[in-house]
Automatic annotation (TrEMBL):
Coiled coil: none
Originating organism: Sinanaerobacter chloroacetimidivorans
UniProt-listed InterPro entries: DDAH-like
UniProt family annotation: Belongs to the DDAH family.
This protein's name: N(G),N(G)-dimethylarginine dimethylaminohydrolase
Highest taxon of the lineage: Bacteria
GO BP, one annotated term: positive regulation of nitric oxide biosynthetic process
Gene Ontology molecular-function annotations: amino acid binding; dimethylargininase activity
Keyword field contains Hydrolase: yes
UniProtKB keywords: Hydrolase
Keyword Membrane: no
Spans traversing the lipid bilayer: none
Length: 256
């Protein structure tokens, strides 16, 4: 169960955030703020305490806090984002994370290692790490070494097409995963029950399990139905403006 969630308000400069899909247009900032409000409300309905950090205009993508750290039950690992424009986002997150973890329980991914939290998927005490354009081999080596020091384990999953691991696969507890595209056939995920995400709803592979409820992006009826049929209560949140920046529900928070 999660007790805490950290989010960061989107900044006006988000319209200049990184995107692989410029054809979707620039995000509408006012609408993004409203969607962020709804996201926070949904999280609160899951019974977590939500810490809302102010917007940081210096970093267009800074609302995607998930990429700055991996917060586990035993330790906090501060990432070293592979995207140059995002690398220094971690600096303002460190003092925030220190409110929740003592110094001895905080570790850092260091250059030349890179790692972004969106590439890390927690399954109990095991952490799958996507090797991507943002997370490199050295980052993964350091990450697994830190996990093992704190009694946890990790393994690498090479990515072919997607930005981050959790763009295409997400664990929703009860041995169940949402899997899209390149992850459907991966051996790493053989032991799990899989909810297959249809190609036209691929974006909705990025849902988050929060204390027995699953928050699902609004506008993906097949995925919503499949998750409900698997026995979960769902909460819908429209994330259209974040999608324009390749961001989804998991990217917008740190849950621990
Ligand atoms: C980026 O390219 O870094 C942002 N525009 C989107 C980050 C999405 N984060 C995530 O999947 N964890």
């Amino acid at each position: 169960m999660f007790k805490n969630v950290i989010v960061k308000r989107p900044c006006k400069a988000m319209t200049e955030g990184i995107t692989s899909a410029p054809e979707l247009g620039k995000p509408d900032y006012e609408l993004a703020l409203k969607q962020h409000d709804t996201y926070i409300e949904a999280l609160k309905q899951c019974g977590v305490e939500v810490l809302v950090l102010p917007a940081d205009e210096g970093f267009p993508d800074s609302c995607f806090v998930e990429d700055t750290a991996v917060l586990t039950r035993n330790c906090a690992i501060i990432s070293n984002p592979g995207a140059a424009s995002r690398n220094k986002e971690v600096e303002s997150m460190i003092p925030v994370i220190k409110k929740f973890y003592t110094e001895e329980k905080i570790a850092y991914i260091q250059s030349p290692g890179t790692l972004e939290g969106g590439d890390v998927m927690m399954v109990g005490d095991h952490f799958y790490v996507g090797r991507s354009a943002r997370t490199n081999e050295e980052g993964i080596r350091q990450f697994i070494e830190i996990l093992e020091r704190f009694g946890l384990t990790g393994s690498e999953v090479p990515l072919e097409k997607v930005l981050h691991l959790k763009t295409g696969v997400n664990y929703i507890e009860n041995n169940t995963m949402l899997v899209a595209g390149e992850f459907v056939e991966k051996d790493d995920f053989k032991p799990f029950k899989k909810i297959l995400i249809p190609e036209e709803e691929a974006y909705a592979a990025n849902c988050i399990w929060v204390n027995d409820k699953v928050i699902v992006p609004e506008g993906y009826p097949e995925v919503t139905k499949a998750i409900e049929e698997a026995g979960y209560e769902t909460l819908l949140v429209d994330t259209s403006e974040y999608r324009k920046l390749d961001g989804g529900l998991s990217c917008l928070s740190l849950r621990f």
